[in-house]
Amino acid sequence: MTIDLTPTTRAVAAVVTGIGDDQLDRSTPCTGMTVAALLDHLHGLAHAFRLAAEKAPEALETAPRADAAHLEPDWRTAIPARLDALADAWRDPSAWTGMTAAGGIELPGEVAGTVALDELVLHGWDLAVATGQDFTPDDDAVGAVLGFTESMSAPGQEASREGLFGPVVPVPEDAPAFDRALGFSGRDPQWKP
Q: Of 19, 51, 181, 188, which sits 20 to 30 A from 118 (CA to CA)?
């Protein structure tokens, strides 16, 4: 399975460029993380998952941080550029095959691509709601993220969720797919800053 990350990276880049300097200290749905810290994390994860797609040797040692103090001064251009490079790297079908690494963990290419998409969709939403912007991921992205977050919420996955997702937030079964994906990821679809 391969998914074009381009619609998602473009949607996330639009949110990033819409963030004002006066919004950097705002809280996000990620507990204890400000907008600036989440932007730093997004910058790092775009790089780490590009390396994963390229199966670069340094991918194993490249883990994104989330530190507002390290946010690049040119983040409004640097993050969209990294997001473009990320989408380009995952367009290569070989990125989705074999083994790779991201964030210090070895994993199959298909899983790494899905995790990259999950990170983009969830953090795109996190940034959008924290800064009062709209964010609507495409249907393919929502379907993949819903499948991933739901599978990570199954009994026996508690250890795998640790550090990746918070406790599941109950969302009605007839809610939109994106709301259900947010709930499975530990996010309240009704979250407000």
A: 19
